[in-house]
Amino acid sequence: MSERGWMEYGSEFDWKSNDALFSDTPQGFVQDDWQLYRSGRDAMKAAARIIGGRRVLLPALCCESMILPFAANGYDVDFYRLNPDLTGDEAYVREKLTDGTVLLYMRYFGVRPFTDEFLLSLRESVRGITLIEDRTHDVIVPRGEERFVPDAVLASLRKWAALPEGGMLRTGMGSCAADADARFGDTRREVMEMKVRYLETWEPELKKEFLNKLHSAERLLDESGKPCGMSAEYEALLRRVDFTALLARRRANVARLKEKLAALDGVIPQLKKSEVARNIGKDNYDAVLVSEFETMDDLNAYKVDPRHVAVSDICKSIRADRVAVDYEF
């Protein structure tokens, strides 16, 4: 028997993690056709206002931060089902669509939710439909030429680098007025600087303090349905990030992670079997670890084994995000 539950972990970057990524000159990642906003949520608010619709269809697997930008701008929010393989249920989507609906989709772990043929057929058959792709998970990963181009693409850069502000929107439908508000970005920068001190001292109270500040910054995003633009200071910061170097560093981290995790196999007695593999696709998570244990007690013992803790600390130092599933079979 193997025991495994469902947990998801994310992490705010510390400010020093930018040091190896900055160039003295703009890097060209941000093209002129991107509209820049305080956050991905603000980019979504802008899209909602530019489109001016009244109904949006979101994937059932989405967080509240995707709902609020539309709800705050007068949209009726509805949801469509995903299949077990994380593709969209195309028949269900067709049933839910009405004229003028906004359909938002995104790739989960690199899985394309809809084929180009399906999206093209919707554009041809549903009057006034608007198609938005959320590329938060893979916006810095180059894609080849694609047959289908959505009406809008948006993304948040907060999981990619230590950027206090980082929302992006690309659309040919126009733009909308945006407010200026430095509170969110300045608070997030303060949080990132506090995390540097926390990682140096591991003081529990400092962690509580920066998490409280981070939560207060998040609340600022929901004060209004009107978007806020990216400040000139943080736009200049974004333009200096070398995302090519970032991708190279992530790939090196994946190799290091694989080496350290694989070394635990056959060493810790509770660990029956372990496999580490690198992603071979373009826009999935970078690596996967599959481990088997006889019981949940064995899993818990493995978690606190000093040899695992040492490797876990390395993982925490190099990862930007982590998703874990515990299940029994």
Number of helices: 10
β-strand number: 11
Which range best describes the helical content: under 10%, 10-25%, 25-40%, 40-55%, 55-70% or over 70%? 25-40%
Question: How large is the radius of gyration?
Answer: 21 Å
Tell me, rounded to a whole number, the average pLDDT. 87
Topology as H/E string?
EEHEHEHEHEEEHHHHEEHHE
Instruction: Show unreliable segments.
Output: 1-10
CA-CA gap between termini:
6 Å
Strand order of the largest sheet: 2-8-7-6-5-3-4
Strand content: 15-25%
The structural class is alpha/beta
Query: How would you sum up the major sheet?
Result: 7 strands, mixed
Spatial shape: globular
How would you explain this protein's 3D organization?
It is a single chain. With 329 residues, this protein is of the alpha/beta class. 38% of the residues lie in helices and 17% in strands. It has a seven-stranded mixed β-sheet, with helices on both faces. Strands 1-11 form a two-stranded antiparallel ribbon. A two-stranded antiparallel sheet has the order 9-10. Helix 2 links the parallel strand 3 and strand 4. Helix 5 packs antiparallel against helix 6. The relative contact order is 0.18. The N terminus is likely disordered.
